[in-house]
Write a structure and sequence with these properties.
mainly alpha; transmembrane; transmembrane helix
């Protein structure tokens, strides 16, 4: 099955717009050949297909927007968890305090770097492996402190914050990987093409109807579809959830005095 995630947004827009225009012209040609013989059903069919297309627009846009909000919320939650971990790390005894803060600086730098550019699946996996390795080092520090003084309150608070940081990475990864199913995207394109064909058919039956409104509709339909796909593509499109919370967290951790 065709996987739209393998293609760039400009390529999808161009191919979709061409397919819609082709459907319009085919429908117009078919309508001109049939003439007024099918005129009674044309408005009903055209309205039904456009209504179905509007329903699909609302459904897929809601899916994309929900996932977009989830990614934005996950960034804020992870930034807050990392910042809290860093603040509680300042309560730890030396040499753990210094070592933990250095690890957190490296950790948050990785979290910022993955937001600055679109990564290939291999690069993404490598960055996640680095994050997991740093989490393990941080956890080893927590285990060492807990073993040396089980009654130490700052250590317990730090462990709770570190656990929240680890959990929030998982939540952010889930939000990042959650996409509109490919079959839903293909269905949206299919309904758009069929609806455009019916609109073109109506212009063919009514020979005096202009092509321009149908072409404008095709352009708008293509633009709306691309907006939906853009919302669903973190790191690869023009619409991005703000990464400022994680950048602010990295800045604040870097500013902690030694």
């Amino acid at each position: 099955m065709l996987d739209l995630s393998n293609y760039s947004l400009p390529a999808i827009f161009l191919a979709g717009f061409v397919a819609i225009l082709a459907a319009v012209e085919f429908g117009r040609w078919l309508g001109a050949r049939i003439g007024d013989r099918g005129d009674d059903n044309v408005p009903t069919l055209e309205g039904a297909m456009i209504g179905l297309l509007a329903l699909m627009f609302g459904f897929t846009f809601a899916l994309a927007l929900t996932r977009f909000d989830a990614r934005r919320t996950a960034v804020l939650a992870e930034a807050n968890a990392i910042s809290t971990t860093a603040l509680r790390a300042r309560l730890l005894p030396e040499p753990h305090r210094k070592e933990v803060l250095e690890l957190l600086q490296e950790y948050v730098k990785i979290r910022v770097d993955v937001t600055q550019r679109a990564l290939t699946p291999a690069e993404w996996a490598a960055e996640i492996d680095k994050s997991n390795a740093l989490q393990e080092k941080l956890w080893q520090q927590a285990m060492a402190m807990a073993a040396s003084d089980t009654g130490m309150v700052p250590t317990g608070l730090f462990i709770l914050a570190l656990n929240e940081t680890i959990d929030n990475q998982a939540r952010r990864l889930i939000a990042q990987r959650s996409r509109i199913p490919n079959i839903v995207q293909l269905t949206l394109f299919g309904i758009a093409v069929v609806a455009s064909g019916f609109a073109g058919y109506a212009t063919g039956v009514k020979v005096r109807r202009s092509r321009i409104p149908v072409y404008v509709m095709g352009l708008l339909v293509s633009c709306v579809i691309i907006v939906i796909l853009d919302l669903d593509r973190p790191g690869a499109g023009f619409i991005e959830a703000s990464q400022q919370p994680i950048i602010d967290a990295a800045t604040s951790i870097a500013a902690i005095p030694d």
